[in-house]
Amino acid sequence: MAGGYDDRDGHIWMDGALVPWRDANVHVLTHALHYASSVFEGERAYNGKIFKSVQHSERLKRSAEMIDFEVPYSIEEIEKAKYDVLQANGWTDAYVRAVAWRGAGDDMGVASAKNPVRMAVAAWEWGAYYGDAKMKGAKLDISKWKRPSPETIPSHAKAAGLYMICTMSKHAAEAKGCSDALMFDYRGYVAEATGANIFFVRDGEVHTPTPDCFLNGLTRQTVIGMLNDRNIKVIERHIMPEELESFEQCWLTGTAAEVTPVGQIGDYNFEVGALARDISEGYEKLVRE
Protein backbone atom coordinates (compact mmCIF):
# COMPACT_ATOMS: atom_id res chain seq x y z
CA MET A 1 0.00 0.00 0.00
CA ALA A 2 1.44 3.37 -1.02
CA GLY A 3 0.56 7.00 -0.44
CA GLY A 4 -0.18 9.15 2.58
CA TYR A 5 -2.15 7.60 5.38
CA ASP A 6 -5.11 9.84 4.59
CA ASP A 7 -5.28 8.92 0.90
CA ARG A 8 -5.49 5.17 0.39
CA ASP A 9 -7.89 2.57 -0.88
CA GLY A 10 -9.51 0.23 1.60
CA HIS A 11 -11.77 0.42 4.65
CA ILE A 12 -11.53 1.59 8.25
CA TRP A 13 -13.93 0.65 11.03
CA MET A 14 -15.32 3.80 12.63
CA ASP A 15 -18.00 4.12 15.30
CA GLY A 16 -19.51 0.72 14.59
CA ALA A 17 -19.29 0.44 10.80
CA LEU A 18 -16.78 -0.02 8.01
CA VAL A 19 -16.32 3.15 5.96
CA PRO A 20 -14.19 3.93 2.90
CA TRP A 21 -10.63 4.82 3.96
CA ARG A 22 -10.77 8.43 2.75
CA ASP A 23 -14.07 9.05 4.56
CA ALA A 24 -12.74 8.15 8.03
CA ASN A 25 -12.48 11.76 9.20
CA VAL A 26 -13.09 13.86 12.32
CA HIS A 27 -13.95 17.53 12.87
CA VAL A 28 -11.15 20.04 13.54
CA LEU A 29 -12.72 20.79 16.95
CA THR A 30 -12.41 17.20 18.10
CA HIS A 31 -11.40 17.37 21.76
CA ALA A 32 -8.58 14.84 21.40
CA LEU A 33 -6.88 16.96 18.73
CA HIS A 34 -6.60 19.86 21.19
CA TYR A 35 -6.19 18.13 24.55
CA ALA A 36 -4.82 14.63 23.78
CA SER A 37 -7.87 12.85 25.24
CA SER A 38 -7.09 9.71 23.27
CA VAL A 39 -5.87 6.16 23.87
CA PHE A 40 -4.73 3.58 21.35
CA GLU A 41 -3.30 0.13 20.76
CA GLY A 42 -0.71 -1.12 18.29
CA GLU A 43 -1.14 -4.77 17.30
CA ARG A 44 0.13 -7.13 14.63
CA ALA A 45 -1.69 -9.85 12.75
CA TYR A 46 0.32 -12.86 11.62
CA ASN A 47 -1.22 -15.46 9.32
CA GLY A 48 -4.66 -13.97 9.94
CA LYS A 49 -4.43 -14.00 13.75
CA ILE A 50 -3.80 -10.89 15.85
CA PHE A 51 -1.17 -11.67 18.47
CA LYS A 52 -2.56 -11.24 22.00
CA SER A 53 -5.57 -9.50 20.51
CA VAL A 54 -7.88 -9.77 23.53
CA GLN A 55 -5.17 -8.49 25.88
CA HIS A 56 -4.75 -5.45 23.63
CA SER A 57 -8.49 -4.79 23.64
CA GLU A 58 -8.60 -5.10 27.41
CA ARG A 59 -5.72 -2.65 27.75
CA LEU A 60 -7.43 -0.17 25.45
CA LYS A 61 -10.41 -0.07 27.78
CA ARG A 62 -8.19 0.18 30.88
CA SER A 63 -6.22 3.03 29.34
CA ALA A 64 -9.44 4.93 28.66
CA GLU A 65 -10.53 4.49 32.26
CA MET A 66 -7.17 5.84 33.43
CA ILE A 67 -7.74 9.07 31.52
CA ASP A 68 -11.36 9.35 32.64
CA PHE A 69 -13.56 8.02 29.88
CA GLU A 70 -15.13 4.75 28.86
CA VAL A 71 -14.80 3.04 25.50
CA PRO A 72 -18.43 2.49 24.40
CA TYR A 73 -17.80 -1.00 22.99
CA SER A 74 -17.36 -4.38 24.63
CA ILE A 75 -14.24 -6.51 24.25
CA GLU A 76 -16.20 -8.78 21.89
CA GLU A 77 -17.26 -5.84 19.73
CA ILE A 78 -13.71 -4.50 19.57
CA GLU A 79 -12.41 -7.94 18.61
CA LYS A 80 -14.97 -8.24 15.82
CA ALA A 81 -14.11 -4.77 14.54
CA LYS A 82 -10.42 -5.64 14.24
CA TYR A 83 -11.03 -8.82 12.31
CA ASP A 84 -13.66 -7.12 10.14
CA VAL A 85 -11.01 -4.60 9.11
CA LEU A 86 -8.53 -7.31 8.21
CA GLN A 87 -11.13 -9.19 6.19
CA ALA A 88 -12.43 -6.06 4.43
CA ASN A 89 -8.92 -5.19 3.28
CA GLY A 90 -7.87 -8.73 2.44
CA TRP A 91 -4.90 -8.85 4.83
CA THR A 92 -3.54 -11.72 6.90
CA ASP A 93 -0.30 -9.99 7.97
CA ALA A 94 -0.79 -6.38 9.04
CA TYR A 95 -0.35 -3.80 11.75
CA VAL A 96 -3.65 -3.01 13.50
CA ARG A 97 -4.36 0.33 15.20
CA ALA A 98 -7.36 0.66 17.51
CA VAL A 99 -7.94 4.18 18.85
CA ALA A 100 -10.59 5.76 21.08
CA TRP A 101 -10.97 9.46 21.78
CA ARG A 102 -13.21 12.24 23.00
CA GLY A 103 -14.81 13.73 19.93
CA ALA A 104 -16.42 17.05 19.07
CA GLY A 105 -19.50 18.01 21.05
CA ASP A 106 -20.92 20.58 23.42
CA ASP A 107 -17.63 21.10 25.28
CA MET A 108 -14.58 22.80 23.79
CA GLY A 109 -12.32 23.52 26.72
CA VAL A 110 -10.28 21.40 29.06
CA ALA A 111 -13.46 19.71 30.30
CA SER A 112 -15.16 17.40 27.83
CA ALA A 113 -17.68 15.31 29.76
CA LYS A 114 -20.47 16.29 27.34
CA ASN A 115 -18.62 15.08 24.26
CA PRO A 116 -19.13 11.64 22.73
CA VAL A 117 -16.39 9.03 22.89
CA ARG A 118 -15.55 7.74 19.45
CA MET A 119 -13.53 4.78 18.25
CA ALA A 120 -11.85 3.57 15.08
CA VAL A 121 -9.83 0.58 13.93
CA ALA A 122 -7.43 0.86 11.00
CA ALA A 123 -4.82 -1.51 9.66
CA TRP A 124 -2.04 -1.45 7.13
CA GLU A 125 0.74 -3.65 5.85
CA TRP A 126 3.93 -2.75 7.68
CA GLY A 127 7.33 -4.40 7.54
CA ALA A 128 10.20 -4.25 10.04
CA TYR A 129 9.90 -1.12 12.19
CA TYR A 130 13.66 -0.54 12.25
CA GLY A 131 14.45 -1.75 8.75
CA ASP A 132 17.55 -3.96 8.59
CA ALA A 133 18.40 -3.43 12.29
CA LYS A 134 17.37 -7.01 13.07
CA MET A 135 20.57 -8.14 11.38
CA LYS A 136 23.11 -5.48 12.36
CA GLY A 137 21.48 -3.93 15.44
CA ALA A 138 19.67 -0.63 15.85
CA LYS A 139 21.56 2.56 16.66
CA LEU A 140 20.05 4.62 19.48
CA ASP A 141 20.56 8.19 20.59
CA ILE A 142 20.08 9.19 24.24
CA SER A 143 17.13 11.53 24.67
CA LYS A 144 17.23 14.75 26.64
CA TRP A 145 13.59 14.12 27.66
CA LYS A 146 12.71 11.87 30.59
CA ARG A 147 9.75 9.61 31.27
CA PRO A 148 7.56 11.46 33.80
CA SER A 149 6.67 10.52 37.34
CA PRO A 150 3.41 8.56 37.83
CA GLU A 151 2.41 11.44 40.12
CA THR A 152 2.27 13.78 37.13
CA ILE A 153 0.47 11.68 34.49
CA PRO A 154 -1.18 8.23 34.19
CA SER A 155 2.04 6.67 32.92
CA HIS A 156 0.62 3.14 32.61
CA ALA A 157 -2.05 4.19 30.11
CA LYS A 158 -1.29 3.86 26.41
CA ALA A 159 -2.42 7.44 25.93
CA ALA A 160 -1.61 9.82 23.10
CA GLY A 161 -0.35 12.64 25.31
CA LEU A 162 2.44 10.49 26.72
CA TYR A 163 3.99 10.17 23.27
CA MET A 164 4.70 13.86 22.63
CA ILE A 165 8.19 13.66 24.16
CA CYS A 166 8.70 10.34 22.35
CA THR A 167 8.06 11.98 18.98
CA MET A 168 10.45 14.80 19.83
CA SER A 169 13.10 12.33 20.97
CA LYS A 170 12.77 10.16 17.87
CA HIS A 171 13.00 13.17 15.56
CA ALA A 172 16.20 14.29 17.31
CA ALA A 173 17.61 10.75 17.03
CA GLU A 174 16.81 10.44 13.34
CA ALA A 175 18.50 13.78 12.69
CA LYS A 176 21.68 12.20 14.07
CA GLY A 177 21.35 9.11 11.89
CA CYS A 178 19.92 6.92 14.64
CA SER A 179 16.85 4.67 14.53
CA ASP A 180 15.49 5.63 17.94
CA ALA A 181 16.36 7.10 21.32
CA LEU A 182 16.82 5.65 24.79
CA MET A 183 14.93 7.57 27.45
CA PHE A 184 15.75 7.80 31.14
CA ASP A 185 13.02 8.24 33.75
CA TYR A 186 12.42 11.21 36.05
CA ARG A 187 14.87 9.74 38.62
CA GLY A 188 17.63 9.22 36.07
CA TYR A 189 17.23 5.46 35.67
CA VAL A 190 17.23 3.75 32.25
CA ALA A 191 13.58 3.48 31.14
CA GLU A 192 12.78 2.54 27.54
CA ALA A 193 13.04 3.64 23.92
CA THR A 194 10.42 5.96 22.46
CA GLY A 195 8.01 3.13 21.66
CA ALA A 196 9.68 -0.05 22.89
CA ASN A 197 10.90 -1.66 26.10
CA ILE A 198 14.56 -2.54 26.50
CA PHE A 199 16.58 -5.56 27.69
CA PHE A 200 20.29 -6.03 28.42
CA VAL A 201 22.52 -9.12 28.75
CA ARG A 202 25.49 -9.52 31.09
CA ASP A 203 27.22 -12.78 32.07
CA GLY A 204 24.35 -14.89 30.75
CA GLU A 205 21.69 -13.02 32.75
CA VAL A 206 19.12 -10.60 31.40
CA HIS A 207 18.44 -7.24 33.01
CA THR A 208 15.45 -5.04 32.20
CA PRO A 209 14.14 -1.84 33.81
CA THR A 210 11.28 -2.11 36.29
CA PRO A 211 8.20 -0.68 34.52
CA ASP A 212 7.07 1.51 37.40
CA CYS A 213 6.68 4.71 35.37
CA PHE A 214 6.22 3.45 31.82
CA LEU A 215 4.20 0.84 29.95
CA ASN A 216 4.80 -2.82 30.79
CA GLY A 217 4.46 -3.89 27.18
CA LEU A 218 2.72 -7.08 26.13
CA THR A 219 5.73 -7.98 23.99
CA ARG A 220 7.97 -7.33 26.99
CA GLN A 221 5.90 -9.73 29.07
CA THR A 222 6.00 -12.31 26.27
CA VAL A 223 9.79 -12.12 26.01
CA ILE A 224 10.22 -12.50 29.78
CA GLY A 225 8.12 -15.65 29.51
CA MET A 226 10.33 -16.91 26.67
CA LEU A 227 13.46 -16.30 28.75
CA ASN A 228 11.93 -18.10 31.73
CA ASP A 229 11.13 -21.06 29.49
CA ARG A 230 14.81 -21.14 28.51
CA ASN A 231 15.87 -21.09 32.20
CA ILE A 232 17.59 -17.75 31.69
CA LYS A 233 17.58 -15.53 34.76
CA VAL A 234 15.67 -12.27 34.26
CA ILE A 235 16.35 -9.43 36.70
CA GLU A 236 13.84 -6.57 36.71
CA ARG A 237 15.42 -3.63 38.48
CA HIS A 238 16.42 0.01 38.31
CA ILE A 239 19.38 0.39 35.94
CA MET A 240 21.76 3.35 36.13
CA PRO A 241 23.05 4.94 32.89
CA GLU A 242 26.69 4.25 33.81
CA GLU A 243 25.92 0.52 33.75
CA LEU A 244 25.42 0.59 29.98
CA GLU A 245 29.12 0.00 29.34
CA SER A 246 29.00 -3.27 31.31
CA PHE A 247 26.33 -4.95 29.19
CA GLU A 248 27.25 -7.25 26.32
CA GLN A 249 23.98 -7.45 24.38
CA CYS A 250 20.81 -5.38 24.13
CA TRP A 251 17.46 -5.57 22.39
CA LEU A 252 14.15 -3.73 22.13
CA THR A 253 10.67 -5.22 22.36
CA GLY A 254 7.31 -3.93 21.18
CA THR A 255 4.47 -4.74 18.82
CA ALA A 256 5.97 -2.57 16.09
CA ALA A 257 9.61 -3.31 16.99
CA GLU A 258 8.91 -7.01 17.67
CA VAL A 259 12.34 -8.10 19.02
CA THR A 260 15.09 -5.93 17.54
CA PRO A 261 18.77 -6.21 18.61
CA VAL A 262 20.59 -2.98 19.48
CA GLY A 263 24.17 -2.40 18.32
CA GLN A 264 24.80 1.03 19.81
CA ILE A 265 23.38 3.46 22.39
CA GLY A 266 25.18 6.79 22.36
CA ASP A 267 28.87 5.92 22.83
CA TYR A 268 28.16 2.38 24.07
CA ASN A 269 28.41 -0.60 21.72
CA PHE A 270 26.74 -4.00 21.98
CA GLU A 271 27.21 -7.33 20.26
CA VAL A 272 24.30 -8.69 18.25
CA GLY A 273 24.88 -11.94 20.06
CA ALA A 274 23.46 -15.43 20.18
CA LEU A 275 20.84 -14.74 22.85
CA ALA A 276 19.52 -11.63 21.11
CA ARG A 277 19.23 -13.55 17.85
CA ASP A 278 17.64 -16.54 19.56
CA ILE A 279 14.96 -14.44 21.24
CA SER A 280 14.30 -12.48 18.04
CA GLU A 281 13.93 -15.64 15.97
CA GLY A 282 11.97 -17.41 18.70
CA TYR A 283 9.52 -14.53 18.91
CA GLU A 284 8.93 -14.63 15.15
CA LYS A 285 8.08 -18.32 15.42
CA LEU A 286 5.86 -17.82 18.47
CA VAL A 287 3.64 -15.17 16.91
CA ARG A 288 2.96 -17.40 13.91
CA GLU A 289 1.96 -20.49 15.87
Distance between the termini: 26 Å
CATH hierarchy, class of the largest domain: Alpha Beta
What fraction strand? 25-35%
Summed up, the domain count is 2
**What kind of sheet is the major sheet?**
9 strands, mixed
CATH superfamily of the largest domain: D-amino Acid Aminotransferase, subunit A, domain 2
Radius of gyration: 19 Å
Portion of residues within helices: 25-40%
Number of helices: 7
CATH architecture of the largest domain: Alpha-Beta Barrel
Give the secondary structure arrangement, pairings included.
Blueprint: E1 11-14, E2 17-20, H1 31-35, E3 38-46, E4 49-50, H2 53-66, H3 75-89, E5 94-102, E6 117-124, H4 133-136, E7 138-147, H5 164-175, E8 180-185, E9 190-193, E10 197-202, E11 205-209, H6 218-229, E12 234-237, E13 249-254, E14 258-265, E15 268-269, H7 274-286
Parallel strand pairs: 7-8, 7-14, 11-12
Antiparallel strand pairs: 1-2, 1-6, 3-4, 3-5, 5-6, 8-9, 10-11, 10-13, 13-14, 14-15
Summarize the structure.
The protein has 289 residues and is an alpha+beta fold. Helices cover 26% and strands 30% of the residues. It starts with 10 loop residues before the first strand and ends with a helix.
